[in-house]
């Protein structure tokens, strides 16, 4: 089967709406590239020839899989380079134009920079993994050549007589199984085992041999495609390797026609090593299951044990019944019951019910902007609508909030997947907070909720996703300008929200969003004041009505954010002999037995009438602000009482709104 060209993969990817497969294909495809200096070797010393192909001063280079399309008409030399090499060698701020059969595929300089960063990250990740691996022990003296004994019993062996057959029993082989893909094979008993993503790793400390096995359920991937995908990983992450010869077929002892396999060998020096190593990468496919087995060892050890390694491969078995029906490739390539495969599938959308896939930080923030738009609409609606709406309004608002919370949690799960963490941690933590809160009270719930949201903000906005594929799918592709703009608007909204919250706290809290300031005028029209919320009639104290009569006292009040606002108008029926003395008695009443004046009372005048402003601090921490005046036979008082000084701004605004119309 002929491998697909980049143009074919690109066309299919654009039709599917996900460009990720095209980027993977691009970095591995050989292109004809104009060069100004051929250099030594395939890409060493090469200097690419760029030009202003669009006449706007932007440098770009035209490359193609077909020689004739890459020729620039200026007699430039052409070199065959992979897309990854083109990206690596291209100057900064230069673009790539891929000449196709009927059009040009433009890769802007920012996409080139993204590709370069991705390739460098993969190389750095591979180098870090190799640095963390135990250093191989010195290779033993090379014994005589190994001869593979076809009829050997089911088991392997590193010790043998010169030119003799493999002594399988000496290895004391043990059977290893990766149950989820039904893979079975043998390894020597003394090889150390460790786990890796989707597979296992084995170390032979005596020889420096490392065997790694990974497997996936990929019903739509052929053996050729699987080889191509894994070779892309090798070429990206292990540039120091050179392929030795062409791929060759491999066959297991118990394989039938349903199992197919190929192997490729490489040679190279691992960074930090002084000796050359050899690699054998085997690719196996059966019933929608694909497996990659990599064996590496120092070059001399590899040649000594070549027959042993190949014997390992002949004893690999795959359980025919392991792949359940939903994962089997359908008879028709367009069958509606084909299972969606996260690896290489479409990127998750902003709205949906599936928790599969992963999204990067910028896309998560841009999607959050769309998800929160209904919340903004509901907030604006509740501000405009009266507070005493019907049940239907309550149901609509409750449903909107519930749906929004679901989509928010979904985005959090997809973001967790991008850093290779399961979204189950989110639901587990929330359940733990709820359970502990029920057991130990509201304070624990509050602390747990703060910790949860702080952790999610860090993961959501600051921790980058894992490089390349991880357990939850392909790495997200480059972000479009629309995604970048959406993320920027989201960040701006968050900053404005923080500023707004700070402003509301200073003004008296979130309740101000729902409260409508109400201007009130006394029955005689003399006193005008603005309540922060609609006031209601309040029965006056018994001692006041007893002294002046029920009809002589008018008192109103309102409460907002734990602050009580009230006014009192008392008609004394006659002029007081000493208004100042009366003001002093009113001030003493406001101070009470539990309070002290804060900085003393301020003597003011309202028009031509004497007035006083009082600020009182009670022993329990409560604060009272009051403005008092006497006009003819009437006393007027405005009072605000709050649990602490944080509400001073709102209280003082209420007091200062007190004016007289006389």
From TrEMBL:
Q: Where are the transmembrane segments?
A: 364-383, 395-413, 425-441, 447-463
Lineage, please?
A: Bacteria, Pseudomonadati, Pseudomonadota, Betaproteobacteria, Burkholderiales
One Pfam match? DUF805
Keyword annotations from UniProtKB, A to Z = Membrane, Transmembrane, Transmembrane helix
Report whether Transmembrane helix shows up as a keyword of the record.
yes
What name has this protein been given in UniProt?
Answer: DUF805 domain-containing protein
Claim: Calcium is one of the keywords in the record: no
Origin superkingdom? Bacteria
């Amino acid at each position: 089967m002929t491998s697909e060209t980049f143009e074919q993969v690109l066309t299919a990817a654009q039709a599917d709406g996900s460009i990720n497969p095209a980027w993977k294909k691009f970095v591995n495809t050989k292109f004809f590239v104009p060069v100004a200096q051929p250099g030594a070797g395939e890409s060493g010393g090469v200097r690419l020839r760029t030009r202003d192909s669009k006449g706007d001063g932007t440098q770009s280079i035209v490359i193609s899989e077909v020689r004739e399309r890459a020729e620039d008409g200026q007699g430039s030399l052409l070199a065959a380079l992979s897309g990854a090499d083109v990206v690596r060698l291209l100057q900064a701020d230069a673009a790539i134009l891929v000449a196709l059969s009927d059009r040009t595929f433009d890769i802007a300089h920012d996409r080139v920079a993204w590709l370069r960063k991705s390739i460098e990250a993969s190389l750095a990740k591979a180098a870090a993994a190799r640095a963390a691996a135990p250093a191989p022990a010195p290779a033993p003296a090379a014994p005589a050549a190994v001869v593979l004994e076809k009829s050997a019993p089911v088991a392997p062996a590193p010790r043998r007589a010169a030119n003799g057959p493999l002594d399988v029993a000496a290895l004391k082989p043990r059977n290893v199984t990766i149950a989820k893909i039904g893979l079975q094979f043998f390894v020597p008993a003394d090889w150390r085992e460790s786990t890796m993503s989707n597979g296992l790793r084995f170390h032979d400390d005596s020889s420096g041999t490392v065997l790694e096995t990974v497997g996936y359920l990929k019903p739509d991937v052929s053996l050729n495609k699987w080889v191509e995908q894994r070779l892309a990983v090798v070429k990206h992450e292990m540039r120091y390797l050179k392929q030795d010869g062409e791929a060759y077929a491999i066959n297991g002892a118990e394989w039938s026609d349903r199992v197919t396999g190929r192997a490729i060998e490489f040679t190279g020096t691992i960074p930090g090593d002084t000796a050359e190593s050899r690699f054998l990468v085997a690719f196996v496919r059966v019933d929608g299951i694909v497996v990659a087995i990599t064996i590496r060892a120092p070059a001399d050890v590899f040649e000594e044990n070549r027959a042993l390694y190949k014997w390992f491969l002949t004893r690999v078995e795959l359980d025919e019944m392991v792949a359940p029906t939903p994962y089997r490739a359908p008879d028709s390539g367009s069958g509606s019951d084909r299972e969606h495969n996260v690896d290489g599938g479409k990127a998750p959308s902003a709205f949906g019910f599936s928790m599969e896939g992963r999204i990067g930080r910028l896309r998560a923030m841009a999607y959050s902007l769309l998800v929160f738009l209904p919340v903004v609409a509901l907030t604006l609606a509740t501000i405009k609508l009266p507070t005493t709406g019907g049940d239907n309004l309550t149901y609509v608002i409750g449903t909107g909030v519930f749906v929004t919370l679901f989509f928010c949690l979904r985005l959090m799960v997809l973001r967790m997947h991008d850093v290779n963490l399961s979204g189950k941690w989110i639901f587990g933590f929330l359940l733990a907070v709820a359970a502990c809160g029920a057991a130990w009270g509201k304070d624990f719930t509050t602390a747990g909720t703060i910790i949860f949201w702080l952790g999610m903000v860090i993961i959501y906005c600051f921790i980058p996703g894992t490089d390349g594929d991880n357990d939850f799918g392909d790495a997200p592709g480059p972000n479009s300008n629309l995604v970048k703009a959406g993320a920027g608007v989201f960040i701006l909204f968050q900053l404005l929200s923080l500023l707004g919250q700070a402003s509301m706290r200073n003004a008296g809290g979130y309740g101000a969003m729902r409260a409508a300031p109400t201007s009130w005028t006394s029955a005689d029209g003399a006193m005008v004041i603005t309540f922060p919320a609609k006031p209601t009639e309040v029965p006056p104290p018994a001692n006041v009505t007893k002294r002046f009569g029920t009809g002589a006292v008018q008192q109103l009040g309102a409460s907002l954010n734990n602050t009580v606002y009230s006014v009192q108008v008392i008609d004394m029926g006659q002029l007081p002999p000493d208004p100042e003395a009366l003001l002093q008695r009113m001030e003493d009443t406001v101070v009470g037995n539990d309070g002290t004046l804060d900085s003393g009372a301020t003597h003011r005048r309202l028009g031509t009438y004497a007035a006083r402003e009082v600020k009182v601090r009670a022993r329990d921490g409560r604060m009272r602000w009051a403005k008092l005046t006497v006009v003819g036979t009437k006393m007027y008082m405005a009072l605000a009482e709050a649990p602490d000084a944080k509400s001073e701004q709102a209280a003082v605004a209420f007091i200062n709104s007190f004016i007289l119309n006389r």
